[in-house]
């Protein structure tokens, strides 16, 4: 029998309600934190049109094969302090293009990709400028204005030596 003079113990002073509620509360807090973090740090997709890229892959491969036929190669030097880019192009071209486009492609964040234009200094020597020298791994593509061929490669920056990009690698 119960003693009529004892007060019932409040629910929040009991062990079992807290034992059941704490995991649920922690789960909700962690879920809200992860949702907030994922919204604030969204970096986009690297390529949001996979189908169109899949169809264009043959055109890209043709550019690579054309560069291999022409025995294209490039030496790229990047000054990490000034941002100067010096490129020496080799290959069996009928005439050297007056400009080249050098694309820096980030492997994980499309928003960080950028391009620079390299202008012809002498016959097969080109010069350009990057605003900020890249850090870590970057893919590089070199193409002429007409887009007939493409040289591609990758490098871990900062790099002290000359980078060699050869067709067919």
UniProtKB/TrEMBL annotation:
Keywords: Membrane, Transmembrane, Transmembrane helix. It holds the Pfam family FixH. InterPro entries: FixH. The chain crosses the membrane at residues 15-37. It comes from the Bacteria. This is Nitrogen fixation protein FixH. It comes from Oceanospirillum linum.
